[in-house]
Specification:
The complex is a heterodimer of chains A (about 250) and B (about 475).
Chain A: E1 2-11, E2 14-24, E3 29-33, H1 40-48, E4 53-62, E5 65-66, H2 72-77, E6 80-83, E7 90-94, H3 95-109, H4 117-130, H5 135-139, E8 141-142, H6 148-162, E9 166-170, H7 178-190, E10 197-202, H8 206-210, E11 215-220, E12 223-228, H9 231-239, H10 241-248
Parallel strand pairs in A: 3-10, 3-11, 6-9, 9-10
Antiparallel strand pairs in A: 1-2, 1-4, 4-5, 7-8, 11-12
Chain B: H1 3-15, E1 29-31, H2 38-47, H3 52-66, E2 90-92, H4 106-115, H5 122-126, E3 128-134, E4 137-141, H6 144-150, E5 153-156, H7 157-163, H8 165-171, H9 182-190, E6 195-199, E7 208-214, E8 225-230, E9 235-243, E10 250-253, E11 256-261, E12 266-274, E13 285-296, E14 302-309, E15 314-317, E16 320-323, E17 329-338, E18 343-352, E19 358-367, E20 372-381, E21 389-398, E22 404-413, E23 419-428, H10 431-439, H11 444-455, H12 457-460, H13 465-478
Parallel strand pairs in B: 3-7, 6-8, 7-9, 8-11, 9-12, 10-13, 11-13, 12-14, 13-15, 13-16, 14-17, 15-18, 16-18, 17-19, 18-20, 19-21, 20-22, 21-23
Antiparallel strand pairs in B: 1-2, 3-4, 5-6
Helix pairs in contact in B: 2-3, 3-9, 7-8, 10-11, 11-13
The chains are: A alpha/beta (about 250), B alpha/beta (about 475).
Chain lengths: ~250, ~475
């Protein structure tokens, strides 16, 4: 589904990713782990198509298509979803209104008919209940005054609503206490499906106790330096990034 | 249809939604000779079949105007207006005094249709009575009967001068005096139409009243005069929408609106102003110099202004409230959008004269392109206004790096018990907000519209339902092409 080859990315003229290779198949959950500044967030942004992240070399193939050639909103319509580390506040726009606008924009882009307000409301309510997203949150302005846990739960709700093919979770565990973490992880696990691939980006091993990946990649200095099964996370926890990076070199 | 008009229509069609009201209706017009002198004033008065007292009132205003200077304190720049090189009266030929819509020129009705005004039976469903002002003459007034039953007078001001001279004499110029300012005085001399509303004691007006203004003839100024009087214990909500065709020359619009609320009465006045703003290079567009003022004359009276200003090359407008009656309330809710080369200098004045008077100002200014947007407001508390309270919130949103937002609040308090709060913010549409929307599949234009509508929400909520939807769309259309 996702095939990244020799990817080089510069931000503000500075090289961040320096020859990254990564392949993720449908139905799999891969984790990207790495120390601060290794390029984890850059990878998530470049996949989502954020402005200012310049691909200087290499390619990203998504279901056989050149992902880099698509504007970000088309990537979204084609099933690329990024759960953000810092979800953004939009004052005055209710969460429900935002979800409706986004869902219908994606549907329009795919040539599907728009869903009416009542249909969307029903769908959202059903999915919200499972993630402990309250009715009140849906009525409030998007992310405004939300706690860290509420923001992350809303990201997962959007993931459940949009049913993406490729879901990227960027440090979804940051700022969560253990109960919130468990809830978010349950939400993510509930969305594991044969047709869906997930890329879980995290700094800590902790999240992977709850979301067990098929494969772990260690990102350091803009490259994948180590790969392995879920046991690699425990090794990382024991040895620390420095040791692993040194071993790989 | 003349070839020029046809060409304009095609050009507009090519522009798509950019300014969809930019068509011209090809109807033979009757005009006063170009220029402005006492004869012009007499011509207009005669055309309207006005009584002598009205002509005298106009002439006095005209003589006064000759001695006045155009104000220059606003943060707007434009070449000098040549008042002698414009027409002051234009009316569709052979249209006055129609008995029913069937007699109205079909082209005129076609124009209304394009504007989206439901003039026929749809009106009953919409529950809106429209006094449509086409250039200077009202051609169709609907729903009169239903309003008559309630005792509400809703008619063109020329008709009111003829049929209700005592009411007009009592209120005309009583809120905005003839001598008030350059543009108001000019309007007093040459106003050619407008609307008159009187809601009798204790009556809640059974429907939203609405007037659609449209400037059609070229080089014609539109000077409408509107008076709304809410007698004791009454309520009325009035909606005003404005559009004008696309033209390369600038056109002057200098209206005067006077509101009077007596004891326990309430007036809600909503405007969606979408006059032609000029093109992307700042060519053409309406000069909108408007004086709007409400007088809360009675105790516990309330006047509420809501405006969505997206059009005009220049907007110079300060809908104000004189809080004369004890415990009276004044409100001003404003959205002002300036894109490309538009200049907006708008705000309000809240004059607290009575005890326990309250005012609330919510202003949302949005600047994009190379536009300049100024909020200018005065809160003044007089010595006898015990316990006056004001809350002001001025928020500015900038889109792109070449526009400007300015906030100029004046506060005067001569009573120590006054409580005046002022909050102001300036923000930009953040790149991360846009990216978040894009990532969720919402395209750039829609994302900007969504974020700006969110920014304006408190004001949009004040609009009557049927206007709110139009206004939301307008916010999006006005800002098309402003990002990226």
């Amino acid at each position: 589904m996702l095939d990244i080859k020799n990817l080089h990315v510069a931000v503000g003229g500075k090289d961040i990713l320096k020859g990254l290779n990564l392949k993720v198949d449908a139905g799999q959950v891969h984790a990207i782990m790495g120390p601060n500044g290794s390029g984890k967030s850059t990878l998530s942004y470049v996949l989502a198509g954020r402005a200012g992240y310049e691909i200087t070399q290499g390619s990203i193939s998504y279901n056989g298509e050149d992902l880099a050639a698509l504007p970000p909103e088309e990537r979204a319509a084609k099933g690329v979803f990024l759960a953000m580390q810092y979800p953004v506040e939009i004052p005055g726009v209710t969460t429900m209104m935002f979800l409706k606008s986004a869902l219908n924009a994606q549907r329009r882009s795919r040539g599907e008919s728009e869903m009416d307000a009542i249909g969307i409301l029903k769908t959202v309510r059903k999915k919200a209940a499972a993630l402990n997203v309250s009715e009140d949150m849906l009525k409030r302005a998007l992310n405004v005054g939300f706690s860290g846990g509420e923001k992350k739960r809303l990201e997962i709700l959007q993931m459940a609503l949009f049913e993406p093919r490729l879901a990227i979770l960027d440090e979804t565990d940051s700022g969560l206490d253990i109960d919130a973490l468990r809830l978010v992880a349950e939400g993510v696990n509930g969305l594991r499906a044969p047709e869906r691939a997930m890329l879980v980006i995290t700094h800590y091993q902790r999240l992977l106790d709850y979301i067990v990946p098929d494969r772990i990649h260690v990102l350091a200095n803009g490259r994948i330096v180590a790969e392995g099964g879920k046991e690699l996370a425990l090794e990382l926890e024991a040895k620390g990034y420095e040791q692993i990076v040194r071993d790989a070199a | 249809m003349s070839s020029a008009a046809l060409e304009t229509k095609e050009t507009v069609a090519g522009l798509g939604e950019k300014y969809k009201y930019g068509f011209i209706t090809d109807i033979e017009m009757e005009r006063a000779p170009k220029g402005l002198n006492e004869d012009t004033v007499r011509y207009i008065s005669a055309k309207k079949g006005e009584p002598d007292w009205m002509l005298e009132w106009r002439l006095a205003a005209f003589r006064r105007w000759l001695s006045m200077k155009e104000p220059s304190w606003a943060r707007v720049h434009y070449p000098a207006i040549d008042y002698q090189n414009a027409y002051y009266y234009a009316a569709p030929k052979n249209t006055p005094l129609k008995q029913s819509l069937d007699e109205v020129d079909p082209k005129l009705l076609e124009t209304y249709k394009k504007l989206g005004i439901p003039l026929h039976e749809q009106m009953a469903l919409a529950g809106v009575a429209v006094d449509a002002v086409f250039d200077s003459v009202s051609v169709a007034t609907t729903f009169k009967e239903k309003l008559n039953e309630a005792g509400v007078i809703f008619c063109p001001i020329s008709e009111a001068i003829r049929d209700y001279p005592d009411l007009v004499k009592k209120y005309l110029g009583s809120v905005v005096p003839v001598t008030d300012n350059f543009f108001a005085t000019l309007n007093s001399a040459v106003f050619s139409d407008g609307t008159f509303v009187y809601v009798p004691k204790g009556v809640r007006c059974p429907m939203e009243l609405s007037t659609y203004f449209r400037i059609n003839a070229s080089e014609t100024g539109q000077f409408e005069r509107t008076i709304i009087v809410a007698d004791e214990g009454s309520y009325v909500s009035y909606l005003e929408g404005c559009t004008a065709p696309k033209r390369d020359e600038n056109q002057l619009h200098a209206a005067v609106v006077e509101l009077v609320a007596l004891d326990n009465a309430e007036i809600k006045y909503s405007t969606v102003q979408n006059w032609y703003p000029g093109d992307e290079n700042g060519l053409g567009g309406i000069y909108n110099f408007v004086t709007k003022r409400g007088d809360c004359r009675g105790v516990r009276s309330k006047i509420s202004w809501t405006q969505v200003e997206t059009g005009s090359a220049i907007t110079w407008k300060y809908p104000s409230c004189i809080l004369r009656g004890d415990e009276s309330v004044g409100e001003f809710y404003s959205i002002a959008i300036a894109n490309n080369y538009q200049q907006a200098d708008t705000g309000t004045k809240m004059i607290h004269l009575g005890k326990n008077t309250r005012s609330r100002i919510i202003s949302k200014g949005i600047s994009a392109g190379k536009a300049q947007n100024t909020y200018r407001g005065l809160v003044s508390v007089y010595g006898k206004a015990e316990n006056a309270r004001n809350f002001t919130q001025c928020d500015s949103l900038l889109i792109g790096g070449e526009c400007g937002a300015h906030t100029v609040p004046y506060i005067e308090s001569r009573n120590p018990s006054a409580r005046i709060e002022h909050e102001a913010t300036t923000s930009k549409i953040a790149e991360d907000q846009l990216f978040y929307c894009l990532q969720r599949g919402i395209g750039q234009e829609e994302a900007v519209a969504l974020i700006v509508n969110g920014f304006c929400k408190e004001v949009l909520q004040q609009l009557p339902m049927e206007f709110a939807v139009e206004a939301q769309k307008l916010v999006g259309i006005s800002l098309e092409g402003s990002v990226g």
